[in-house]
Every structure is written in structure tokens, then in C-alpha cells.
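**Reference record**
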Amino acid sequence: MSYLKLAIKGTSWSLAQVLVERLTQTVVFLIAAALLGPHEFGVAALSTAPAVIIASTLQSGSQVVIQRRLLDDDFVSSVFGLFLLLGLCGSALLLIASALLRHLETFSGLSAMVAVTSIAPLVSALAV
């Protein structure tokens, strides 16, 4: 198979993945906005944003493995261990932020939501 066909095929799959992700996110947000009031929706969006940012950053681990021409067990184990550690650190940061938010009266409702979303970076790291 020529490089042009490989590039087109790879780009098509990447585009399909991005489109499906965005469509799914749009549907989820529309349903959440319909079921929740404006305040609750804002709290949910605000609490999930840091977890989504950290989890999106951790998705680069699979790209590191894919771009490597030759894979050996040591390299894969190292990448997995590194991203698992980064996922644990991201989750710990969110839990610390949740504990700090609990002490602020204005953000007390946000604290519980941030604590729940703190699992997202760890799950994203395990997906590597």
C-alpha cells in the first residue's frame, strides 16, 4: 500500500474519531442542559473542565506508542508506568483541589463534583 493511501486512511480514521467524540460530547451536553437548571449545569461544566483537560493531555501516551517504529516490552512498560504515574498525580491534584474548594463557602457544591471527576485522569492513563 502506498504512503499516500496510508496517510489518507489514517487521516480518515482520525477524522472519524474526532467527529464521533465531538458529536457524543454535544449530545451529552444538550441532554445535561435540558435536565439540569442553569446553575447546576454551570457547576457540572466547571467541575468537569479540569479533569477533561488533564485526561486529554494523558491521551498522548498512546500516540507515543503508535509513532514508535520498533516496540519492545521495556519501552511499552516505561510508557505505561509513566502515564500511570501522571494519571495518579492528576487525580491527586483534583482531590487536593476538591478539599480546598470544600473550605470555601461559595464553591462548596463544586467540591463534591470535582472529587467525583478526579477519577477521569487515572482512567485515561490506564487507557494507554
Notes: Residues 1-35 form one domain. The radius of gyration is 18 Å.
